[in-house]
Amino acid sequence: DFWLPLSFQPQVLKDESYLNTAYTYWLNCIGRLKHGVTMKRAATAVTAHLHAFYITQAGSHLTADKRREIEEQQITLKPGGSGISWLRYRYAKPLNVLMAAVGLVLLIACANVATLLLARASARRQEFLCRLALGASRGRLMRQVLTESVLLAIFGGVAGALFAWWSVKLLRVWLHFDSVVKVRPDPIVLAFTLGISIATGILFGMIPAWKFSRLDPRPGNVAPPGWRARRFGSTQMLIALQVALSLMLLAGAGVLTHSLLALERQNMGFNRDRILLARTDAKLAGLEPAQEFPLFRELGERLNELPGVQSAALARFSPMSGYSSSSNLSIQGYTPPPDKDMRVWRLQVGPHFFETLEIPLRLGRTIDKRDTPASTPVAVVNETFVKEYLAGQNPLGVHMQHGAPFKTPGYEIVGVVADSKFYDLRERPKPMVFYALAQQPETEFQLILRTAADPNSVVGEVRRMLNRVNSRLPVLEVNTLDQQVEHSLEQQKMITTLCSTFGVLALLLASIGIYGSLAYSVSGRTAEIGIRMAIGAQRASVVWLVLRDLLILMIAGLVAGVPFALGGTRWLKSFLFGIGTVDPLALAAAVLLILFVALLAGYLPARRAARIDPMRALRHE
Fold first, then answer.
1. CB distance 272 to 611 below 8 Å
2. What is the DSSP string of 44-62?
């Protein structure tokens, strides 16, 4: 790392000094608090200085509305140790969502373990009573169950830890995490989940043992053959809880998937197919500002002559590149209403820019070769700009200027183009102004080429052409517009993929719990089922007998899960696009999937019950 004085910025970047530009609002300040001064007191002091600065800047143009606007501005101070992190801002919400999903899966897993242990303990009731009848003490019985539970929890926890180390490596490759995001197993998280697993195993293993150890093992108090647990006891309630939580996860994954599809299929206002992008920087080639226009003109001509290139243009940046620029606006003869937002987004483009991206022209003309440093400054605006500031009048010929008040001659509006998305696929159309790159030159810019075939097939030609124009002109980055758009969706895809994975995992856990619980239940009802079949019950009625209780549990769990699912999707509102927080399609799909998997898991023990030999069943106990 190295640091340069800010005063050297005009020489290094060959640009106007940031210190002399009134609209350079993105510079960060750093300071050390005086001894005994709190962060709140310091924030109040620097905010007062900010207000005084703005009032001085406004001078004679200070109005009551302007003063009110200035007084609303606040400075927020952050601890220097953590700093201002764009990465933290970008990943904070997604990681909160994923943490909630992981928490739900952990809760389902604990409920699953509890379900299986309770069902297993119910099936072992006779065993516990026999041990007590043979002289085993209650303490001995508790130690046996405790040993079994702890061994089960430890073996499962160790297997889970090993799987975590392997799965994190898979996640890193699968989801293409940003290189600065450290994706690795966390010892604290592993220890916490291992502790929860062991605690769950011990708790739900000991509860039945403690309960049964208090029973009287004398013959008159031992349950008769065919005894079974209540139809809707603690085991069944835990299954219903797993179903409800699984519905919440699957419904959330469904709305995120629906939103992702809406993002990908929307009309972006431009055609992203077969577009090659190459970024370069003239200042790194040692060019002075006076040499930039000849460079732009030559590059534009040569790019359009390359074989396999249908159209080519230069621009400050391309759609979804992560770059943006905005400023306040003033229009000749236009007095904005109080509190009117006059901020617009701006972009410098060369000839054929709109034609290359296939952005439709609505009125007038686009930026072309006649727009040079010596010609009248011009601008092209989008439809939202016209609706926002020039509604009901012909925008062609209107003059505008960045900053206020308006100063002649300004930029003449010569064309209107359709709205398109440039910064974020979620954004609503914003007022946008396109300037001629030759009249507002930038040293760093992008080459945008529409090719007849695969864009990557002309990369070599583009590099050789740049080398011929200026051997010192670097190629900083090469990709396609399609890749750039897909990259802008990476966060949404990461959340959707992981939430879907957790939803499927939750459903798998719930199905294991359902299968295990029913298998133990069928085992305990062997004699009952044998009697039913001996007196004429058909296999179909036996299957229905087993599945009926399961279906009631499913309906109860789903009914309880619907409010949780709706609340969860409402919490995901900031991640959704093109759909409401209530998505009947996603909810219905989640319900049907849970019912299908649950009935499939329950059908296996039910079918086994239907194949019981009545004579063997009658001899079971």
1. no
2. HHHHHHHHHHHHHHHGGG-
